[in-house]
Amino acid sequence: MSDFVELWVYLSSTPLFGLTATLVVYVFWFSLYVRADQHPLLNPVLWSILTIAGTLTVTSVSYQTYFSGAQFIHFLLGPAVVALAWPLWLRRHQLKSRMRRLLVAATLGGLVASLSAVGLALLLELPSGVVLSLVPKSVTAPVAMGISEAIGGIPALSAVFSVLTGLIGALTGKYIFEFFKIPKDTRGWSDRGFALGTVSHGIGAARAIQVNPDAGAYAGLALGLQVVIASLLIPGLFRLLGHFF
User: Fold this and answer.
1) Rounded to 5 degrees, what are φ and ψ at 60?
2) Best CA proximity match to 157, nearest among 140, 126, 134, 138
3) What is the CA radius of gyration of the chain?
4) Range list of H helices, 15-154
5) Would you say 213 and 231 are in contact if contact means Cβ atoms under 8 Å apart?
6) Are the C-beta atoms of residues 70 and 22 closer than 8 Å to each other?
7) In which domain, by residue range, is 206 found?
8) What is the percent of the chain where pLDDT is above 90?
9) Which pLDDT does position 169 carry in this prediction?
């Protein structure tokens, strides 16, 4: 027992703790996820977040200590996003013929995702800072934070909303698609993936990749389109509105 305590004290005070904890926890939940035939409610990202957050709280290990090791995995997010281009390249001819419709769908989908959240927030009479922070909720967290700062929101809060949106999409997407009877053929999988990537960004795209390659490819495309469209339109729209109000 004393050896374990000494090992814990050593690990919890070094960058090795964050790296080890992240890998062990994610592999554990991912193995359960696979054994359960990738049931959406066992999403390994969600349960890894809850497990690590709970562990840090109980053990009083600071987030800074944890992230000093976890940043090595965080760095890999960049190459992982770039790797999403490969399945798109394999489908480049198909995408070229559908690009105009996909651009329209991405713009309208992002607009509905944003306005629906803002409308609900206004209905609940939430503070203006919270309302503005909800505007970029369907964009991947780092970009959502930049957009939020540009329009007067709270960047940290936008990051939380972005992660929650991604998790909710990954957890409920399957049931929503089944409710609307979206088929599981080639066209249906691409539609499912594009919708999931549009509203649930990277976390939704990760779920789509695990389920079907076509869904994953279109989810990755939708993720990228939302980043570009939201970054250009949302700050510009708010500046335009500022001239009239």
Assistant:
1) 60, 25
2) 134
3) 20
4) 15-35, 44-59, 63-75, 77-83, 85-90, 92-123, 128-134, 141-151
5) no
6) yes
7) 81-244
8) 58
9) 92
Output the six-digit token pair for 188. Answer: 């249906």
Instruction: Tell me the CA distances in angstroms from 55 to 25, 60, 71, 189, 216, one per residue in order.
Output: 10, 8, 18, 37, 32
Q: Look at 43-47, 96-100, 129-133, 237-241 and tell me which has the smallest mean pLDDT.
A: 237-241
Q: Indicate the pTM of the whole model.
A: 0.85
Q: Which amino acid is at 87?
A: P
Are residues 165 and 129 both part of a single domain?
Answer: yes
Task: Indicate the residue among 75, 101, 124 that finishes a domain.
Answer: 75
| pLDDT per residue as tens digits for the range 93-132 | 988 889 999 999 999 999 999 999 999 999 999 999 999 9
CA–CA distance, 147 with 72 (Å, rounded to integer): 26
* Single-letter amino acid code for the residue at 1: M
Q: Is 244 exposed, middle or buried (0-12, 13-18, 19+ CB in 10 A)?
A: exposed
Number of domains in the chain: 2
> Residue 189's pLDDT band (boundaries 50, 70, 90)?
very high
What does the alpha-carbon distance between residue 155 and residue 148 come to, in Å, rounded to a whole number?
A: 5
